[in-house]
Amino acid sequence: MRATALFALILAAGIGTAAAAEPIAGTWRTEADRKGQKGHVEVTACGSGWCGTIVSVETADGAPVTTPNIGRQVLIGMAAEGGGRYRGEVFVPIMGANFAAEATVRGSQLALRACNAVGICRNQTWLRMN
Questions:
Q1: Across-strand partners of 27?
Q2: How crowded is the C-beta side of 25, counted as CA atoms within 13 Å?
Q3: pLDDT tens for residues 11-59?
Q4: What Rg, from alpha-carbon coordinates, does the chain have?
Q5: φ, ψ for residue 108 (rounded to 5)?
Q6: pTM for this one?
Q7: Which of 30, 26, 50 is nearest to 39 (CA)?
Q8: In 3D, which of 58, 59, 57, 93 has the Cα closest to residue 74?
């Protein structure tokens, strides 16, 4: 009985450590869009991967923006590949479409690359807010 309880405790501690070690979790500030607005995207665990939801938007001078995109999931099913690399999809609000995406976390930066079906890709660098 004690061995089973000890094993469960060790397993739970290992799972908690692995989840806490995932560097993509947190809130990120996007690059400015064509209107000069920056989104704040909160990335949390979802299913077996990571998802990011727009929690707020601001103008270039930091004023809050009201938009229907607040609450919209923009990172979808980002699966950890190791070494701070993730693969999944990104929803691009201005285009109203999902695209294949790769993300790499390096310290306080998240390099995001999204590509359409014919291989045209765009890159952004997001900054960690917390």
A1: 42
A2: 9
A3: 333 333 344 445 899 999 999 998 999 999 999 999 999 999 999 999 9
A4: 17
A5: -95, 15
A6: 0.81
A7: 30
A8: 93
Structure tokens at 110: 């998240």
Tokens at 38, concatenated: 């920056």
The residue to which tokens 């765009």 are assigned: 122
Identity at 19, one-letter amino acid code: A
Strands 73-82 and 49-58: antiparallel
Match 């099913």 to its residue by tokens.
77
Q: What gap in Å lies between CA 94 and CA 73, rounded to an integer? A: 14
Task: Name all contacts of 30-33 with Cβ < 8 Å and 24+ positions apart.
Answer: 30/124, 30/126, 31/124, 31/125, 31/126, 32/60, 33/94
> Residue with structure tokens 């660098």?
125
